[in-house]
Amino acid sequence: MSRHFIMQSILEKLGIQSVNFGTSTGLQAWASGYKYLSSYSPVDSQLIAKVSESTHQDYQQVMATAQTAFKTWRNIPAPRRGEIVRQIGMAFREYKAELGKLVSYEMGKSLQEGLGEVQEIIDICDFAVGLSRQLYGLTMHSERPEHRMYEQYHPLGIVGIISAFNFPVAVWSWNAMIAWVCGDVCIWKPSEKTPLTAIACQNIIASVLKENQIPEGVSNIITGDYQVGEWLTADTRVPLISATGSTRMGKIVGATVAARMGKSLLELGGNNAIIITENADLTIAIPAVVFGAVGTAGQRCTSTRRLIIHESIYESLKERLVKAYQQLRIGNPLDENNHVGPLIDQKAVEAVAKEGGKMLVEAALLSGDGYESGCYVKPCIAEVEPHFSIVKHETFAPILYIMKYSNIEEALEIQNDVPQGLSSSIFTLNMREAELFLSANGSDCGIANVNIGTSGAEIGGAFGGEKETGGGRESGSDAWKAYMRRQTNTINYGKQLPLAQGITFNI
């Protein structure tokens, strides 16, 4: 049975009706426009389907539908909204295998990672269900007699979600599931490189909303290029924009939203480092480094870009890393025997050619049987000095830069000396080194780990970073507060009107 026939069956099960699969006619129109997004798989360069881009008229219709739905959704009790999200989680459990394969084929990540991404949707649904009964405010003692003060949180309204290709469904769900239990409705603008996975998610959700007689406008999707995103970010009807992508993109989004006094939640570039001290357990450190550097072909915002190694173990660790890289299996990500799949497109491949430093494991473009797409690249390791300009930038490819240090203070200075501040790790069995790393004098990143790698964040914690990473927080902890507006309330239950600060005003 051919890969295309299998993928066509998957698309149809996910509610995506394909016409002449893999040909220029492609997918039926999703919107009314005549411009199309072509979704090509980086696995084999085959056209999966075409998706009609949203016109401005489509956008206005979606916005009106969302505004109407919000008026109903915000008045449904939060625990009931949580029940809807619970059912959504169950629906994603039912379609996990199919959606995971589609994620793998359309984006290029390994099948295990594609399935894992759908599992993240399921997990955040579970988290959001519990959260729906825990949208707590505070009570405060008033300085005035017979008065009570408290604060509460109300839904914001429409939340705009702009997602990136590398996590085409999981990061959207971190926003959407939390926003929904908070009483918001969502308009999702997925990456133009991975529109099919987004449409599949929308179809899965639509069936749950219909069964519960919930307005469809609670969950909305618009497809297109950057112009569609511009409509969303500039729209005063959207109080919160959550955007994931490059720092360059985030600066544009942040400025646009701020100019209209809106709120933005930005998850931008990462340039993540692992510090390996002389006190590290290398049996766990090496697998963490390799997975962090080559997982998703280095196309994670939490991918390990820099490895900072103590000089006493530098040479021996370097040799072990080279041997580990020689064991990597690169190929079709739907084959579970492979560790590394393709990059997303040719533009990403071109970025690999810009690597610098002394190459310990050479980068190479793979071609021939199994590599027909031209997007398969051999992960590489480069030896550099910490001050090299090349290590100050995020390269979305499987390139690992290694460097040495002499003391922990120097290691921390090297780690923090980049514009980004997302994820960081240290491997050490020394308590003082670990605690210093986690202190105010240590890592300046939003995520700081001890004896685990830079990637693989759990949904229970708030996800995000500092500096040019944008400062946003998604997913767990109290990240839900970004999706609501805070209101302070004072109630006078007495017969007098005492004014603040003892002011008297007699009329």
TrEMBL record:
Keyword Transport annotated: no
Record key words, sorted: NAD, Oxidoreductase
Stored PANTHER family: ALPHA-AMINOADIPIC SEMIALDEHYDE DEHYDROGENASE (PTHR43521:SF1)
Name of the protein in its database record: aldehyde dehydrogenase (NAD(+))
The UniProt record lists the keyword Iron: no
Similarity remark: Belongs to the aldehyde dehydrogenase family.
Class of enzymatic activity (EC top level): oxidoreductase
InterPro entries in alphabetical order: Ald_DH/histidinol_DH, Ald_DH_C, Ald_DH_CS_GLU, Ald_DH_N, Aldehyde_DH_dom, ALDH7A1-like
Pfam families tied to this protein: Aldedh
Active site residues according to the UniProt entry: 267
Subunit note: Homotetramer.
EC number(s) from the headed UniProt entry: 1.2.1.3
Annotated ranges, domain Aldehyde dehydrogenase: 35-488
